[in-house]
Amino acid sequence: MNKEWFKLVVAAFFEVGWVIGLKHAESVLAWSGTALAIYVSFYLLIASGKKLPVGTSYAVFTGLGTAGTVLAEIVLFGVPFQWIKVMLILFLLSGIVGLKLLTDSHGHEERETV
């Protein structure tokens, strides 16, 4: 996995952190951590978007963030487990993998020639 994709995955990890922080932060320290996570996630998203296609970067960022947030709610905050949620997350993640596979190493969408 090249450096830009790694930045994007780390950005999505920080996205999960700030989304959880928006819901659960109650102290100045927690709000500071949330603000830092917002900064880091968007900094890395913008940095990876300089080399990767912007649409693909944003789709991967939001998809991984969504999947991570739902899983964190289940694991960390006791939200009831539902198989349909897990199946839909897996479907979402398969789309993200598909986008990764269709993006060449130079960050351009591969075009199918007829």
Describe, in plain words, how this protein is organized in 3D:
The chain has 114 residues and is an all-alpha fold. It has one domain (3-102). It has helices spanning 3-24, 28-49, 54-77, 83-102. The longest helix is centred in the middle third of the chain and has 24 residues, at 54-77. The protein is flat. The model has no long low-confidence stretch (mean pLDDT 87).
Entry keywords:
114 residues; mainly alpha
Spell out the blueprint of helices and strands.
Blueprint: H1 3-24, H2 28-49, H3 54-77, H4 83-102
Helix pairs in contact: 1-2, 1-3, 3-4
Overall number of structural domains: 1
Distance between the termini: 30 Å
What low-confidence regions span 5 or more consecutive residues with pLDDT below 50? none
Helix content: over 70%
Q: How does the major sheet shape up?
A: none
SS strand fraction: under 5%
What spatial form do the alpha-carbon principal axes imply? flat
Order of helices and strands: HHHH
Number of distinct helices:
4
Structural class: mainly alpha
Q: What Rg is obtained from the alpha carbons, in whole angstroms?
A: 16 Å
Mean pLDDT: 87
Q: How many strands appear in the DSSP assignment?
A: 0
